[in-house]
Amino acid sequence: MNLDEIALQNFRSYAKKTFAFSPQTTLIVGPNTAGKTNILEAIMFLATGKSFRADQDREAIAWSKELSVISCQLSDGNEQTKLELFLTQGEVQGQKAPMKKYLVNGVPRRQVDFVGNLRAVLFWPEHLELVTDSPSLRRRYLDSVLVQVDREYRRNLMSYERGLRQRNRLLDLINEGKAGRGQLLFWNQLLIKVGGYITDERGEYLDFVNRHKMSDVRLKIDYDKSVISESRLEQYKDEEVAAKATLVGPHRDDFMIFKDKKELSKYGSRGEQRLAVLWLKLAELGFIEKEAEERPILLLDDIFSELDEEHRELVVGLIGKQQTILTSADEDIIEMIGKNVEVIAL
Hints:
Layout: E1 2-11, E2 14-20, E3 25-29, H1 36-48, E4 67-76, E5 79-88, E6 91-92, E7 95-96, E8 100-104, E9 107-109, H2 111-114, E10 120-123, H3 135-146, H4 151-175, H5 185-211, E11 219-224, H6 230-235, H7 237-243, E12 254-259, E13 262-263, H8 264-267, H9 270-292, E14 297-301, H10 309-319, E15 324-328, H11 334-337, E16 342-345
Parallel strand pairs: 3-15, 3-16, 10-14, 14-15
Antiparallel strand pairs: 1-2, 1-4, 4-5, 5-8, 6-7, 8-9, 11-12, 12-13
């Protein structure tokens, strides 16, 4: 599946703009304030249903605007698919509106059925913080991979997030003496069921990553999973009421990356941490290809300055293997990646 073009309306810095892409390699070049990353963010919105940059998706709507629209045209041989994603602040022209609306070929779809039509792997500079930043970033990363290839994961993740919010509200009421513990039973059962699926699929993905080899580097992920079960909920029942929050479950998951038994977030050099993220992204590319039976689009956001020469060459070697869209502030990068490149100048 190729991404032929993407159209943006009131999205970040773009009032109204359409970009067409080569089925091979497209370089988006321009200064750091030109909005290059905004284009890749829009593509990932269509791939995952969420922003990889904003805490709240509506932050991507252009300042003072009520509505933002991202649409794209996909092609696979003679088959064409149009995806549209509408973002609102919750209100349009004084009328209440859904925060997000999804269409496939003009037909409204739920997020669970919209995501998975377009698949992409993104590598951007902030991903270098995957090793060292907070566990929430690593959980978001796992979700961004798995929602693209597993409809059941999408469904269970949405159920888990809704159920977690409801259970936490109930814990708050119990803390205030306005509800009884018996009311937790339904939400406990829901979170145990859907949370178990999330944990299993995250574990299978990380097992795949651990089997991925990159030259002679020995890297390994340790999945620190927070299993949710009746016994663990019982174990933490008093602490949860005091904290007014659910203390066990996939929303508490984390993973650590080791190189030769050295935990890289604490003891790794900056170069080793960059290497680990590159290993993770290469494995992600292979995983999505295996699950979807096609190569995802590769999105590279101004990353070459962050890599040494050896690993730059490794990434360049990937570029011709699937549709690739990359950004840079330096047009001279064409000499590094080859001649068959279409350029979008911002």
